[in-house]
Amino acid sequence: MNNLEKLHQQFNQSPWLDNLSRDLLHSGKLADYVSNGVRGVTSNPTILEKAILGSGAYDEQIKTLAATGADAETIYWRIIEDDIKEAAALLRPIWDESNGGDGFVSLEVSPRLAEDPMSTLEQAKRLWQEVGQPNLMVKVPATDASMPIIRDLLLAGINVNVTLIFSLDHYNLVADAHLASHELGRENLARSVASFFVSRVDSEIDKRLEVIGTQEALDLRGQAAVAQAHIAYSIFLDKFARMLETNPDGAGIQRLLWASTSTKNPAYDDLMYVTYLVAPHTVNTLPEDTITKIIDHLPENTQAISSDYIEHAKETMSNLERVGIDFASVAKTLENEGIQKFQASFDSLLKAITSKMTQ
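User: That's the sequence. What structure does it adopt?
Assistant: Structure tokens below.
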């Protein structure tokens, strides 16, 4: 049992790969990751932008589709849907053996629709129908505009990955949307995960602590993201307590997913967003280099989030607020940056496709 498999077998945490490309699929590398313990895959416009710009794997399909008169965005959706279908087929055995609890592949709606909930709803339903795989998860951002449609998508039987969560307030709303869709007196097999972003929180708060500049503030650097995540996990335990007791593997439970888990600051431990976020009924989405590091050196004393961790997290959050950190402001800043980054990647990706179409 390698360290990646240990996360699932010993701690009931699912490691997912935060990458997808045709090169990964056709080289057999994704299959190798799955055989080594990866139990799901996530994708987004930034990931595909890198794949298309850095590889010729899509050139022939772009050429063929362009010859039919398809525009760049139509070609994009055909490309990504084909990759998603292939990845979903590879992960389907995990979905089957886990009774629909794992083995998912995530496909994100257009970031251009972040503030247009009705168009997001319509596109999510279209993607669900076109991909046609039960282990697809449609990624929808946790913006104020998109929040009301999460429940609608789940009620329609569509699995949802709610992404770009940076605050406890938004996480509460996301968890409540899932609960509302599974407590209506009828069976609902739709699954969802709440993607709580981690390392970016430290990057933003550390900058603010350095501006404050007091020794008390500086001593709190590198602690905010893990503390907030621990409190999010305590909220998860409270909200899903009854379901965790009666049907811990059922669709009624919305797992927390730790996103953005590579360590951005080289001064910090390279696996701090892995070892401190081990917890049952959670997912950790991992870049390839982080997976390599986990297999190489997951600490022997790694343990799951405990009540002591949560109490310490509450104290840390109080200390951060006392020195002047406004978590609502941090969350809004990061949400806006996340949307802008995905929109910029999407625009760049379409330009890259257009460029290849004209060559």
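The chain has one domain: 3-351.
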